[in-house]
Amino acid sequence: MYCSTFLVQAILLELCAAGYVLETSYTSANWFDQFSFFTSGDPTAGYVNYVDQSTATNNGYINTSNGLVYMGVDSTNVATGSGRDSVRITSNAAYNYGLFALDASHMPGGICGTWPAFWMVGPNWPNDGEIDIIEGVNDNANNAMTLHTSDGCSITDGAFTGTLTTSNCYVYAPNQSNNAGCDIQNQNTQSYGNNFNSNGGGVIVMEWTSSDINIWFFPRGTTPSDLEAGTPDPASWKEPVAQYQGDCDIPSHFADMQIVFNTDFCGDWAGAVWGTSSYCSSLADTCNDYVQNNPSAFANAFWLINSLDVYQSDGDVVAVSHVAVSPGGHQRNETAPLLSAPLAMGGGLPNPPGKRAMRRGRSTMGGNGIK
Predict the structure, then answer these.
(1) CB 276 within 8 A of CB 50
(2) Which residues lie within the region annotated Disordered (predicted)?
(3) Is 65 helix (H, G, I), strand (E, B) or coil?
(4) Helix (H) or strand (E) holding 287
(5) Which contiguous run of DSSP H or E holds residue 228?
(6) Which of 8, 40, 156, 321 sits between 20 and 30 A of 87, alpha carbons compared?
(7) Is 239 noted as a catalytic residue in this protein?
(8) pTM of the entire structure?
């Protein structure tokens, strides 16, 4: 919180500008009560079978042991039907603005065939926007952060440490691959996949305000003391790895966003770029073949999360959240109909093949995003 001291009528008054206060802390104690399980077919053509909470629990794909949230995939059986069993969850709460701090010790990335993501999406895609905070495919070593919007939102290269690869956030922007969005790549190889995991993970923070969207990554052991103390002061931190501002009216393009975690396989991105990785393509002719027949390869395809803290500005009346679920509290297991609107999951290589038709039908219905 920023403070200035003034002498008014011989009395010292401390006037403090708005700071961040904790709104919700998602931990192992409440995690699966705060999220719903998505069980529809994958709209991005992934070789995946998203299971309900009961199946995930019984098969050992999820647990909250030792104060940690574990979300994994089937690493035992040869896959059949629509694909390998996995988990996709969507927060019951939707948000407008805020600071979102994920402390994770392990992610599913860096494994051939995988397409994990931690992202946020509004109910009417792309008009209400999408923010991809963690995303990558196959043996990528760098995190991709991407926005997807309706027309009229583009960003400029500025005071951030990542590499801007595409600047127009519009999903049908001319001179960009369909659904490329505005993408920034983190050049720190500890930001994703194997190196992230071997370093014990870290904290990734996304700040969404009415003027810009910023993302920081703090490898394990480098988290700012104010954030660790629960009093985040982003103005005191180093430059963000990604900053989205420019010719984009943020309030017009991002609204009522829900939090999503998922681990997909192959599909419109990981499958489409399979041949561009000499290592992955040496393992099998196609992504689907590899994912289907090599269950043990995915033993490390799991999220291990310490916490996800959501802060709201104590001076911004529009920084609110609400529960976006139907009667009966949260809906743990839902099958949402696909919509006709295109779906974009964001991030990745600049103009990668396979992002041309990614994430068809992206929207949220009944508290479940369709990615």
Answers:
(1) no
(2) 341-371
(3) helix
(4) helix 287-293
(5) helix 225-228
(6) 321
(7) no
(8) 0.85
| Cα–Cα distance measured from residue 176 to residue 352, given in angstroms and rounded to the nearest whole number | 10
d(CA 103, CA 26): 10
Catalytic hit among 135, 207, 228, 334: 135
What contacts 47, CB < 8 A, 6 or more positions away? 79, 82, 83, 84, 113, 265, 266, 267, 271, 287, 288, 291, 292
Q: Is 135 a catalytic residue?
A: yes
First-to-final CA distance of the chain? 37
Catalytic residue (one of 130, 207, 239, 334): 130
Cis peptide before 126 (omega within 30 of 0): yes
pLDDT digits (tens, 9 = 90+) for 180-230: 999 999 999 999 999 999 999 999 999 999 999 999 999 999 999 999 999
- Which of 139, 142, 74 has its CA nearest to residue 283? 139
Lowest-pLDDT range of 146-160, 199-213, 284-298, 336-350: 336-350
Q: How far apart are CA 203 and CA 196, in angstroms?
A: 10
Q: Tens of pLDDT along 114-156?
A: 999 999 999 999 999 999 999 999 999 999 999 999 999 999 9
| Residue where the block lists tokens 């991002």 | 254
Q: What is the DSSP letter of 359?
A: S
Q: Tokens 């068809």 sit at which residue?
A: 360
Q: Which residue type is seen at 356? A: R
Beta-bridge partner residues of 100: 206, 310
Per-residue pLDDT at 314: 81
